[in-house]
Design a protein that fits this description.
It comes from Myiagra hebetior. It contains 22 helices and 26 strands. By secondary structure, the chain is of the alpha+beta class.
């Protein structure tokens, strides 16, 4: 009897609660509010109110009421935990795996009327199980959107819209039937829009880790090893801004170049404080600490809490000590005594930490442009320190989005044959202006522009005088759009009447309209420091960085503007040297002290002569920009091999080298007219049956050491070559394919 009385009392309280909920529901329909917060509750109360004749123990009723109270705050966001709990996070009730799971929500029974869990009462009234089954199958299940085994069924509840900026979203007043995205919880009106929305997630590689704060289980982590360093990453680690553990294997070369630059700086002074401002997984800072050990004090920073947690775990994975900040004590793994290296991990904005502390080496690698962090980087960097930055906004730097380049870098650029070097000079110009604002100058040590990134490494020189000298090297470039000739604008503030006179070509005189465009401001100085690159190459050989060694050899040749066969890493005065991996490495006996002759005055004179000879070798800067041999090839002719063409230009008395910016590019101080002339001379016709192989001899021998006239003045009279029919045909073809206005093919 007591149990029956308790059950009747509980049922009475339920009826009172139901009446109060219905009053609140009517009140919110009249005055606004959050209808989504009541829909789920009303449905659950109705499900319980349909069982009034069933005697339920008091303990079960109390448990059911507690469950309803715990469920209420989740329903306020229209995200209700589903029956199928194998999905990694809570999702809306309209997202189910099977139709049976959707029917379980309705609690179908043959002898009772049940409401639809996805429709309001005014749209679909409670009915028996057979009718409700057809309703769920035809109206909700058949028009669902499938994704990875889940069905996003159409929902008619008054859910609040999420992310109203997406396509298909509307305001709350117009919200009707809609879908809930399983990935980002967005509400989409149309089914076609929902399919396109999911496809965009799939194409971008987006997963739930972008939208939830709960970290993924450790079983879903992947361990990636690079340069004897292990890091844990998530399965979607290759998608930037969509994951907390972004790791790009294609940037391995970038990390090796930065490591070599830091190793060179560590050899100059010890210990140095270095900062990885955007740690992500912490792979770069871990490599610094693991290989350079006590020579560096590494600080890895990231503003994302999950990334900071992962950096700590990766430090423990590599048996490193973790120092949270300066005031807190160290967190050390059990066997951390084997390695005394300590890595400081911080969680703050990159601008904040660079404003608060001073560093000797700073690396910036944000997603996209790094111009937002340049002022902070140069504020507290120490004198003769190094700042390296990696820019991945190649769409704007490579002139695909010119308006973005103008907005970010304040630079006007167009697509040219030397667009990669143009991108590097654009970034250096922005770095120069940022350093000058802090009364600092720069010395460019390295500038690399490859397919995925633009890397710039500069040395900081404190003082207003170096700042002024660096600022003067930021100049405009005059570029001929017809023949691709280019020249930096002369220094000075006076306006010239005809700026076309600065161009070596005469396209403006022979072609109508304006033929040139003003690009910039750009960095007009050198892009490489030969001595620093040679030391980087030695560090790459020492640490076995195989991918960086070929590129560094190319950079040394490019900095000296010489071919690879004349390349060596030892100076002419080095006598004691050893060879390793095909590269000559200096031994400790090859320092300046080895040239001292004790007890004689000739020692100082010998040192001065050696230094003078070395300065003479490295005084000449490499010529700016390069020419693409395919861009200036002659139609109907087979151009010579690139290495042979380099030898031809070198024999003509010009400095020449290949460039890493373009595999078919030639960096030379030869003018474009001379470049085309040599290319024309050593090209052969495509039909080789009528003429023997070998270089084409133009009428009137042109001396390579003398000044060659422009290509527009190269004309041949056919009457002079009447004796040789084959030569007449060949020269006539040259005249047709090489018009007098210096046009490119």
């Amino acid at each position: 009897m007591a149990a029956a009385e308790a059950a009747e009392a509980a049922l009475g309280r339920q009826q009172e609660q139901q009446e109060e909920e219905e009053e609140n529901h009517d009140h919110e329909h009249e005055g606004g509010g959050e209808p989504a917060a009541l829909n789920g509750v009303v449905v659950s109360e109705k499900v319980k109110s349909n069982n009034l004749d069933v005697k339920i123990p008091k303990s079960e009723l109390e448990t059911e009421e507690k469950g309803a109270e715990e469920e209420h705050p989740r329903e306020c966001d229209s995200n209700i935990l589903d029956v199928s709990s194998d999905y990694p996070r809570d999702k809306h009730i309209s997202i189910q795996r099977h139709l049976a799971d959707l029917e379980k929500l309705a609690d179908l029974r043959e002898d009772e009327k049940k409401p639809c869990p996805l429709c309001p009462e005014e749209k679909f009234k409670a009915c028996y199980s057979h009718k409700l089954h057809r309703h769920l199958q035809n109206l909700h299940w058949k028009v669902s959107v499938e994704f990875e085994g889940y069905r996003m069924c159409i929902c008619h509840l008054s859910c609040r819209p999420v992310k109203p900026n997406l396509v298909g979203d509307q305001t709350l007043a117009k919200m009707g039937a809609h879908y809930h995205c399983i990935i980002c919880s967005a509400t989409i009106i149309r089914r076609t829009d929902m399919i396109g929305h999911i496809n965009r997630h799939v194409n971008k590689g987006e997963t739930e880790s972008r939208f939830i704060t709960v970290r993924a289980p450790k079983s879903s982590y992947e361990v990636v090893k690079e340069s004897a360093t292990d890091v844990q990453v998530l399965p979607n680690h290759s998608t930037p801004q969509k994951t907390d553990s972004y790791f790009n294997p294609k940037m391995k070369l970038n990390r090796q170049l930065i490591f070599c630059a830091l190793a060179v700086l560590a050899g100059e002074r010890k210990p140095i404080e270095c900062l990885d401002a955007f740690g992500a997984t912490g792979i770069m800072g871990l490599q610094w600490a693991k290989h350079l050990r006590s020579s560096v004090k590494v600080t890895i920073n990231d503003c994302n809490e999950n990334s900071v947690t992962m950096i700590k775990e990766n430090c423990h994975l590599n048996k490193m000590k973790v120092k949270l900040n300066i005031k807190e004590e160290d967190e050390t793994v059990g066997d951390g005594e084997e390695n005394s290296d300590t890595i400081e991990v911080t969680k703050m904005d990159a601008n904040v930490i660079m404003h608060l502390r001073s560093f000797d080496f700073i690396h910036l690698d944000p997603f996209g442009t790094s111009v937002n962090y340049l002022d902070s980087a140069f504020r507290n960097v120490r004198n003769l320190g190094i700042v390296s930055l990696t820019s991945t906004d190649i769409s704007s730097l490579y002139a695909k989005a010119q308006h973005v380049a103008l907005r970010h870098y304040g630079c006007n650029i167009v697509r040219t044959e030397y667009y990669k070097e143009l991108a590097a000079r654009t970034v250096i110009a922005a770095v120069t202006r940022a350093a000058a604002r802090c009364n600092k100058g720069i010395e460019v040590l390295l500038a690399v522009a490859l397919e995925h990134f633009v890397l710039v490494v500069v040395r900081v020189l404190r003082g207003p005088t170096p700042a002024d000298d660096s600022a003067k090297k930021v100049r405009y470039l005059i570029h001929c759009q017809w023949c691709e000739e280019r020249v930096f604008q002369k220094e000075g503030n006076m306006v010239e009447e005809n700026p076309y006179q600065q161009l070596p070509c005469d396209c403006h005189g022979s072609m109508p309209g304006k033929t040139a465009v003003l690009l910039g401001p750009l960095w007009s100085g050198a892009l490489f420091n030969t001595g620093f690159l040679r030391r980087m190459l030695l560090e790459a050989v020492q640490y076995g960085l195989d991918e960086a060694q070929p590129l560094l050899k190319t950079l040394v040749c490019e900095a000296e503007c010489t071919t690879l066969k004349h390349f060596s890493t030892h100076s002419p005065g080095d006598e004691n040297k050893q060879e390793e991996c095909g590269v000559y490495i200096k031994t400790p006996n090859t320092s300046a002290e080895s040239y001292l002759v004790h007890g004689k005055r000739k020692s100082e004179e010998m040192l001065r002569s050696v230094a003078k000879r070395q300065r003479a070798e490295h005084s000449a800067e490499h010529p700016p920009f390069y020419y693409n041999i395919h861009r200036h090839s002659i139609k109907g002719m087979n151009m010579p091999k690139l290495n042979k063409f380099l030898n031809y230009l070198s024999e003509a008395g010009y400095r020449v080298s290949r460039t890493h910016f373009d595999p078919m590019g030639v960096r030379t101080n030869a003018p474009l007219a001379q470049f085309k002339t040599v290319l024309m001379k050593y090209s052969t016709p495509t039909y080789v049956g009528a003429q023997a192989e070998g270089p084409v001899h133009l009428p009137g021998e042109i001396q390579m050491g003398e000044e060659v006239p422009a290509a527009a003045e190269i004309k041949v009279e056919e009457a002079e070559l009447a004796e040789d029919g084959n030569s007449r045909i060949t020269v006539a073809m040259f005249t047709q394919s090489y018009p007098t206005h210096c046009s490119a093919d």
